[in-house]
Design goal:
The protein is of the alpha/beta class and 325 residues long. It folds into 2 domains: 172 residues, Carbamate kinase (3-Layer(aba) Sandwich); 68 residues, 2-Layer Sandwich (Alpha-Beta Plaits). 36% of the residues lie in helices and 23% in strands. It has an 8-stranded mixed sheet with strand order 3-6-2-1-9-11-12-10, sandwiched between helices. Helix 2 runs antiparallel to helix 3 and helix 6 packs antiparallel against helix 7. The chain is globular.
């Protein structure tokens, strides 16, 4: 079995044009120069998937799901082939593989398939030959040899599943965001980037609507104990490590707003954090907010309010919760 493997996944914004592909190529070369065996997972470029879906539904309102999977899978194949062409031109031997060439086998569900098995023989063969292996994200093949896709964000799932199958050291998820924050930095000023977060906390964030990681990839990471590192393609800042860390203290990690009237506060052991609960209750009273539901679990407090909660109110609660940190 090939050793010292690193899996790198790059999202759609990271490969959206040729200039960004060059940035991605240089990132990969940096890892390769550190004597690593590199497997790369790619999303489709930019809005390619949206464009392909739109064009399909311009033809008919009743799009055949098998054919739609065959169509949208082309976006990742284009990204992978382009990156391989670029790396080879720069003197770094690489090969692009589709999901089926990489041995990713799924169930028979189109648009939201589940990975059942990964045969890593072809990947290991290419690594042993000194190639950087570039694999299309978001897709596999079923028992009928039909292409299947994993749903939005599915390239994250491909990356972590491949990392687990290869027993990779780490799985890096590169995007235009350089980590996980205490709230959405696009909506709340003064948020703090987290250096570490547990699988359970990240899963709660993903389930509550955070778009940083596909929730299925977090589940796979936790099951196979694969550290997931989120970083930016466009800078060298430190990222956030999602791992099996267990925190005994009651520590809040992040606050997220879902839809228009639900706010969730995420953190290991939050069910025992009476101070946080009191802050939330007092905040609700002081701002004359009416709660419809207040739900507490081991790692999450979720509050559904009667009325619309805007981003200004989210920031206000964020500042209150993190005032002492």
């Amino acid at each position: 079995m090939t050793k010292n493997i690193i899996v790198l996944k790059f999202g759609g914004s990271s490969v959206s044009n040729n200039e960004n592909l060059k940035i991605v190529a240089n990132k990969i070369i940096d890892f390769k120069n550190n004597d690593k065996n590199i497997v790369v997972i790619l999303s489709a470029q930019g809005k390619t998937t949206d464009k392909l879906i739109k064009e399909a539904y311009e033809l008919t309102d009743d799009v055949n799901k098998r054919e739609l999977d065959a169509l949208v899978s082309c976006g990742e194949q284009m990204s992978a082939a382009k990156l391989s062409i670029l790396l080879n031109s720069l003197g770094f031997s690489s090969v692009s593989l589709t999901g089926w060439q990489a041995g990713i086998y799924t169930n028979n569900t189109n648009q939201d398939a589940l990975i059942e098995n990964i045969n890593t023989d072809r990947i290991n063969k290419e690594l042993d030959n000194g190639n950087i292996v570039i694999i299309t994200g978001f897709q596999g093949i079923n028992e009928n040899l039909d292409i299947t896709t994993f749903g939005r964000g599915g390239s994250d799932t491909t990356a972590v599943a491949i990392a687990a199958a290869l027993k990779a050291k780490n799985c890096y998820i590169f995007s235009d965001v350089d980590g996980i924050y205490s709230s959405d930095p696009n909506k709340v000023d003064g948020t703090k980037k987290l250096t570490n977060i547990s699988y359970e906390e990240m899963l709660q964030l993903s389930n509550e609507g955070a778009k940083v990681l596909h929730n299925r990839c977090v589940e796979i990471g936790e099951k196979y104990k694969i550290p997931i590192i989120t970083k930016s393609t466009f800078n060298d800042n430190y990222g956030t490590v999602i791992s099996d860390e267990k925190i005994e203290k009651n520590e809040i990690k992040s606050i997220i707003k879902k839809e228009i009237s639900r706010i969730s506060i995420i953190g290991n052991g939050i069910i025992r954090n009476t101070d946080a609960m009191l802050k939330v209750i007092n905040f609700t009273k002081e701002n004359k907010l009416e709660m419809l539901d207040f739900d507490v679990s081991e790692s999450k407090i979720s509050i559904t309010f009667r009325d619309f909660v805007n981003d200004k109110m989210l920031k206000k609660l964020h500042d209150e919760i993190f005032a002492d940190k």
